[in-house]
Design goal:
alpha/beta; ten-stranded mixed β-sheet; 14 helices; disordered N terminus
Length: 342
């Protein structure tokens, strides 16, 4: 082989190496997009609900799961993993692979309150998750067992405060678990009214409401959607909503501020989808877009609004900012109320 031929062969080889490297880089750069567009989802997707069935977290997950199943052609399965104020389910998702096949229906408790309430969490609400979208916000509602309210002569929040002050520690306050907004709303109420009720944490609103209806518990500051059916059915008496404004779903029920003169009382809840850290942005974006579409359909929107929920479907970036603001808000509530995990 002469010198000229050797130079030509070497040049061709160099060009092939450069071209191969460029192709490999391009292919690598396209992997997430290809993964999102073609490879995902190729099997069922799990939505972990960190509370027992029957509560608002469960209701909202089951409202959007069928819509996502239709949109993606794979089953989106609701998996209830209750315990420790939502921490059990949240930790499970935090430890799952970031492959788009495990999601969390997070709450103001798991991603807003618990960082301030617990000395140690088994997960990092920020580092271990990618926000997908806020599904809905809801007011809480102060409810009593209707028969108990009648027997105690309690018709409104002022009556309740008088009775509670006259009988310290004799009223039982149910919640969906330590650290939930239902728990913290009750603690805020106790702090602002100078009353004391014994807190009984359950593994979700569902089992807590069963004991409320059965008359085993006296009062609960529940998420409105999970209590709505029992309020409409006359089993529970709604004394007040805990938001700053009245709920359009219960327009005749006053706010706590209106009913008892507790200026600035505002304690609402929210629920949103999150994925494990490392989940491809394209997958996150596709889920967010389909959830937003579902929440904007008349059937889903009307169903949720009738239960007192306010549908959202915002972007991952907007949801991330919301989570940060909520953590700062509830950290102050925890500090002011002196709430403890019991």
């Amino acid at each position: 082989m002469n010198k000229e031929t050797s130079v030509t062969v070497a040049s061709v080889l160099r060009r092939r190496v450069v071209l191969s490297a460029a192709c490999a880089a391009a292919a690598f750069a396209c992997l997430p997009s290809a993964f999102a567009q073609g490879g995902w989802p190729s099997k069922p997707v799990r939505i972990v609900v960190p509370f027992a069935p029957g509560g608002t977290t469960d209701i909202l997950a089951r409202a959007i799961a069928p819509e996502l199943s239709k949109a993606f052609g794979q089953q989106f399965i609701v998996d209830n993993r209750a315990g420790a104020g939502g921490n059990v389910g949240a930790e499970l998702v935090a430890r799952a692979p970031g492959d788009g096949y495990t999601l969390l229906m997070g709450t103001v408790g798991t991603h807003g309150i618990n960082r301030a309430l617990y000395d140690k969490l088994p997960y990092d609400p920020i580092k271990d998750f990618v926000p997908v979208t806020l599904v809905a916000g809801v007011p809480n509602v102060m409810v009593m067992n209707a028969d108990k309210a009648r027997s105690m002569g309690i018709n409104n929040v002022s009556d309740f405060i008088r009775h509670a002050k006259a009988n310290p520690g004799k009223l039982n306050m149910a919640s969906s678990g330590n650290g939930t907004s239902i728990h913290l709303t009750g603690e805020l109420f106790k702090s602002m009214t100078g009353t004391y009720m014994v807190h009984f944490p359950y593994r979700g609103s569902g089992p807590a409401l069963m004991d409320m209806v059965a008359g085993n518990m006296d009062v609960m500051f529940d998420n409105l959607p999970s209590s709505m059916a029992q309020i409409k059915g006359g089993k529970l008496k709604a004394l007040a909503v805990t938001s700053a404004q009245r709920s359009t779903a219960l327009p005749d029920v006053p706010t706590v501020e209106e009913a008892a003169g507790l200026k600035g009382f505002d304690a609402s809840s929210w629920f949103g989808l999150l994925a494990p850290a490392g989940t491809p942005p394209e997958v996150v974006s596709r889920i967010q877009q389909e959830v937003a579409k579902a929440l904007n359909t008349p059937a889903i929107k009307e169903k949720l609004q009738a239960q007192g929920a306010i549908p959202s479907g915002n972007t991952p970036q907007e949801f991330a900012r919301h989570i940060d603001a909520e953590h700062r808000k509830w950290a102050e509530v925890v500090k002011t109320s002196g709430a403890k995990v019991d």
